[in-house]
Write a structure and sequence with these properties.
The chain is an alpha/beta fold. It has one domain: CinA-like (Maf protein, Alpha-Beta Complex), CATH 3.90.950.20. It is built from 6 helices and 5 strands, in the order H-E-H-E-H-H-H-E-E-E-H. The protein has a 5-stranded mixed beta sheet, with helices on both faces. Helix 1 packs parallel to helix 6. The protein starts with a helix and ends with a helix.
């Protein structure tokens, strides 16, 4: 249930004084909306980037135009660059990104409607030099069914559930 996930994220972030930020394309800010629907989210949600166009991905998150041209906006490579860009352009400790094809049009044979690419990035201390931080990133592609709203909702929920899962794994 999404409320439980959001409560878990809030509890962890508030206790550890950590922040989350998002970059969204096909979800158009739905992830940020779900987070900010929670009272007190200003304590743990730093910002959300809605980077719907390729140009906005370049301008707001620092993506290279060639990366988008080579891989397509809906790709794990672009999702990863978006998540890394969030951390580089915010004060957040954890970032998630979503880019996909919500439909009803826009799909292709290789990337049908419902294809959504995700990335989750977070800072980690490099073991050899505790003063240096590096960004770790996990990417994944999922295929959702249903109409435009169903794809967007499933994508937003999935991104938050997976972020919660990742945080629980790395904070053990």
């Amino acid at each position: 249930m999404i409320e439980t996930t959001l409560n878990d994220l809030a509890d962890f972030c508030i206790k550890s004084k950590q922040l989350i930020a998002t970059a969204e394309s096909c979800t158009g800010g739905l992830v940020a909306k779900l987070i900010t629907d929670c009272a007190g989210s200003s304590q743990w949600f730093e910002r959300g980037f809605v980077t719907y166009s390729n140009l906005s991905k370049e301008q707001m998150l620092g993506l290279d135009e060639q990366l988008i041209n080579d891989n397509g906006a809906v790709s794990e490579a672009v999702a990863e660059a978006m998540a890394r860009g969030v951390l580089e352009h915010s004060q957040a400790h954890y970032a998630l990104s979503v880019t996909g094809i919500a439909g009803p049009a826009g799909g292709t044979e290789t990337k049908p409607v419902g294809t959504v690419c995700f990335a989750w990035a977070y800072y980690d201390l490099v073991a050899e030099n505790l003063a240096m931080e590096k960004i770790n990133c996990i990417t994944m592609t999922q295929y959702f069914s249903g109409d435009r709203q169903a794809v967007r909702t499933q994508s937003a929920h999935f991104s938050l559930h997976k972020l919660d899962e990742i945080i629980k794994q790395i904070s053990v």
